[in-house]
Design a protein that fits this description.
The protein has 162 residues and is α+β, with helices and mostly antiparallel strands. The protein has seven helices and four strands. The chain folds into two domains: 117 residues, Arc Repressor Mutant, subunit A, CATH 1.10.10.2910; 40 residues. The protein has a four-stranded mixed β-sheet. Helix 1 packs parallel to helix 4, helix 3 packs across helix 4 and helix 5 crosses helix 7. The two termini are 25 Å apart.
């Protein structure tokens, strides 16, 4: 079973330690520096992003995807770095490609997603802003995330708050 509590705690801790999320949008460059990681674009990649712990590098596919999508992928891979063993390369899993995955891989992906969500859109801040009347579009701009992600997070937070 995924340990969402740990994923959220570690994301909150990283934000506090790195000082990367003081004004809405999280500065992922600051987070990466704090962790001694780097993110670089890679050509000819199939996956959206890949964490290679041996190189302390997150490789991000160079394509026309919106930068906000890439931010989530980087935050997701940072989640793997913080939460999981560093013994193997971890590509970002696409559950829509028809491949089958082990229970461990699925759990790790869910934990990395929870970590990325809390890192980019901290629950308490989303709740505070939603209560102040922020719309999904407002949250999207405030946190510099995609509409899809802002909508998902808004529904999750507001649904949990009432």
């Amino acid at each position: 079973m995924p340990d969402y509590g740990r994923a959220v705690f570690e994301a909150q801790n990283l934000l506090a330690e790195s000082g990367a999320g003081k004004n809405g949008t999280v500065n992922l460059a600051t987070v990466l520096r704090h962790l001694d990681l780097r993110a670089i674009y890679g050509d000819d990649m199939i996956e959206e992003a890949v964490l290679d712990p041996t190189q302390e590098t997150i490789f991000v596919r160079k394509d026309d995807s919106p930068i906000t999508r890439k931010y989530f992928s980087i935050a997701h891979e940072i989640g793997h770095w913080v939460l999981h063993t560093r013994d193997r390369v971890r590509p970002r899993i696409n559950f829509n490609n028809g491949n089958s995955y082990s229970k461990e891989e699925i759990i790790e992906e869910q934990e990395a997603n929870a970590f990325a969500a809390e890192l980019l859109m901290p629950y308490d801040e989303v709740e505070r802003l939603a209560m102040a009347g922020y719309s999904i579009e407002d949250l999207m701009r405030y946190f510099n995330v995609s509409y899809e992600f802002a909508r998902y997070r808004y529904i999750f937070v507001v649904g949990s708050s009432y």
